[in-house]
Amino acid sequence: MAKKDYESRTEALIQPMIDEHHFELVDVEWVKEGANWYLRVFIDKEGGITVDDCELISRAFEEILDKEDYISENYIFEVSSPGLDRPLKKEKDFARSIGKDVEIKLYKALNKEKEFVGVLTDYDKETITIELDDESIMVFDRSDVALIRLAFFY
After folding, report:
1. What pLDDT score was predicted for residue 1?
2. What secondary structure, in 3-state letters, does the chain show?
3. I want to staple 151 with a disulfide (CB 3.0 to 4.6 A). Which of 4, 13, 74, 101 is the partner?
C-alpha cells in the first residue's frame, strides 16, 4: 500500500470514533523518521485536546488496527494534538482562519523572500491571498506554498 492509501484507510476507519466523541480529525500522516515508520493521528476539540482524549482514541483505535491489519511495515502509532502551529491543510482550516494572521513559507524565493506574514483574506483550490502590514495584497499559487499556518507573535 502507498502512503496515501494508509492515510485514507486510517481516516475512514477512525472518523466514526472521532465523531462519536465530538472531536475533530485534523490530519492523518504516515511518515518515516530515521529508521521508524509512524502512523500519526491529530485530533482537536473546542477548548483543546487533552492527554486523556488522545489516550482514549489511541487505545480504542489500536484494537481496530490489530483487527484490520492493513499495514505490513512495523510502525509506531501516535494520537496527539496538532499544536498551536498546525499547518492549514483542509478547507475547514482555511475557512476558520480567514481574517487571521498566517505565516507562509514558499519552496523557492519570490522577490528574494521565502517567508511572508499577513492576514488571510481569501483562498481557493489554486491560490491563497494575504494582506500584508502595508495593506498590499499578495496572491500565492498553492503549488508554490511549502507551509501555511497561523502566525503567533511572541
Report:
1. 67
2. CCHHHHHHHHHHHHHHHHHHCCCEEEEEEEEEECCEEEEEEEEECCCCCCHHHHHHHHHHHHHHHHHHCCCCCCCEEEEECCCCCCECCCHHHHHHHCCCEEEEEEEEEECCEEEEEEEEEEECCCEEEEECCCCCEEEEEHHHEEEEEECCCC
3. 101
Q: Centre a 10 Å sphere on the Cβ of residue 22 and count the other Cβ atoms it contains.
A: 8
- Judged against a pLDDT cut of 90, whether residue 132 lies above it is answered with yes
The four Cα atoms 129, 81, 45, 57 give a dihedral, to 10 degrees, of 140
Share of the chain above pLDDT 70, in %: 98
Distance between CA atoms of residues 112 and 110, nearest Å: 5
As to burial, measured by CB atoms within 10 angstroms (0-12 exposed, 13-18 middle, 19+ buried), residue 30 is buried
- Domains of the chain in start order, with CATH, are 3-80 (3.30.300.70), 91-150 (2.30.30.100)
pTM of the entire predicted model: 0.72
